[in-house]
Amino acid sequence: MECDVLIIGSGPGGYRAAVLAALRGLKTVIVEKAIWGGCCLNRGCVPKKDWHHSARLLDQGRHFADRGIRGDIQGDLAQAWRHQHEVVTAVRDSYRAYLKRLGVVAIEGHARFEGVSAIVVEPGAQTITPRAVIIATGSAPRLPAGIDAVSGRILHSDLLFDEPVPAGARVAVIGGGVIALEFAYILRAFGREVLWLARKDPFARTDFSAPAMKLLRTALADRGLVPVRAGLEAIEVDNGGVRLVTTAGETLAADWALFATGRRPVTEGLALERAGLERDAQGYIVVDEQMRAASPAIYAIGDCVAGPMTANRALYEASVAVGNIVRPGSRTRDLTGVPEAIYSAIELARVGLTEEEAEDRGLEPAVGFAAFETSPRALGQDDAEGYVRLIADGDSGTLLGGEVLGAEAGELIHMLTAGSSEGALGRIGSARFNHPSRAEEFQNAVETLAAKWGLQDHVFGAP
């Protein structure tokens, strides 16, 4: 079989690459060896955000009596598991149908390189000769050395969504990254007692500001979620539960354990060397700034390439790769415009440069701030924690980055990602907003920034 573009992997990056290629009139083939939709759809972004929404509803129940809503609500994690499964199935069926309507050929099987321009798919040894290839094979959970998953007792995030949630009131969450931050909150909201072990400080991320992480730390502590700063020395299944030994020498017990200890790229079994492709010491495929992997006709995107392991990045890199297939050399990767978010006791989202990064580039960062504590919309929702925080260049007035904390932060951050950063302050300052709305706080932050830093002409135009 011949085609213009062959895509290996059907996660968010692979799926978007297939859609973009087909919409540009390219004959497109996509190969998937496991579950269509990859980690994001089946075991990551989609089901986890489904659970987070339910967790937030449960969390907001403490305000119900004041709002005139009577009655108790309780979390049912078993039903929540069934709900996310139904959502995932509906999304998967929808996107596979869309690929079919676009004329994308979908093949189930394992792809491997036979050379720069030949791919063999097993079973059946079907040979495909594409004009270009995009590798989007994603990642898999990584457990600490010497620890193996045990169904119903020792889980990673894949198993948590593949199988019904284990019974038991006490859960150990091991990890100090975003996945641990999110699952610790979700499980606690559903009534579980959470024992959280983190070797590193989960709130020491440098990309979000110190005030943002302080608010998140406080919100989690208010819900009884304070990580135990210790690593895990050993874990074993014991008397229907698990027994954990920390690096501090303490022995702890739980009904089951969830490991959120990172992920590894899935790049084995592709015979990359036959196409002259390289992997680094961690197993990531080596690419250039145009997402090309050694050969000018082979690209790699998403988690199989070094960088933040987010669906947001994979979706963006898909557009870079397809753009360069259509017009070689026309696109280069710039991750500063790709948003990232944390969905926990408080929703956090950010994009662009931090103040420190701006200073490192010789810029003069100017900050504008607006808190939700005075927002009529936020107060009416009993959810006034958080703020909008903007960073601009104090000389040129160019928007450099921003941060949003609070309800719907992951949606609101898109106010800062559409269009060029140059002139963005003026567009926000002159925009029309629905009232009352959370989005209005962007305008308030811009106006505060302009007044404080003397940027009125950049925002409102010269008099």
Could you provide a short overview of the structure?
Helices cover 32% and strands 24% of the residues. By secondary structure, the chain is α/β, with parallel strands linked by helices. Strands 1, 2, 3, 4, 5, 6 and 16 form a seven-stranded mixed sheet that branches. A five-stranded antiparallel sheet has the order 17-18-21-20-19.
| Class derived from helix and strand content | alpha/beta
Poorly predicted tracts of residues: none
* Number of beta-strand segments: 21
Distance between the termini: 64 Å
Overall number of domains: 3
Number of helices: 14
Looking at CATH, the homologous superfamily of the largest domain is: FAD/NAD(P)-binding domain
Helical proportion, percent range = 25-40%
Instruction: Report the CATH C-level class of the largest domain.
Output: Alpha Beta
Shape: globular
Second rung of CATH, namely the architecture of the largest domain: 3-Layer(bba) Sandwich
Strand residues, percent? 15-25%
CATH topology of the largest domain: FAD/NAD(P)-binding domain
> Main β-sheet: number of strands, strand sense, barrel status?
7 strands, mixed
Please state the CA-atom Rg, rounded to the nearest Å: 24 Å
- pLDDT averaged over residues: 95
Characterization of the model:
- With 463 residues, the protein is α/β, with parallel strands linked by helices.
- Helices cover 32% and strands 24% of the residues.
- The chain is built from 14 helices and 21 strands.
- It has helices spanning 12-23, 38-43, 45-60, 77-101, 157-162, 178-189, 210-222, 311-326, 355-360, 376-380, 409-412, 424-429, 440-453, 456-460, and strands at residues 2-8, 28-32, 105-108, 110-115, 118-122, 126-135, 139-141, 154-156, 170-174, 193-197, 232-238, 241-246, 251-254, 256-259, 263-265, 298-300, 340-343, 347-352, 365-371, 387-393, 399-405.
- The strands form 5 sheets. Strands 1, 2, 3, 4, 5, 6 and 16 form a 7-stranded mixed sheet that branches.
- Helix 1 packs parallel to helix 8, helix 3 crosses helix 4 (77-101) and helix 3 packs across helix 6.
- The longest helix is centred in the N-terminal third of the chain and has 25 residues, at 77-101.
- The model has no long low-confidence stretch (mean pLDDT 95).
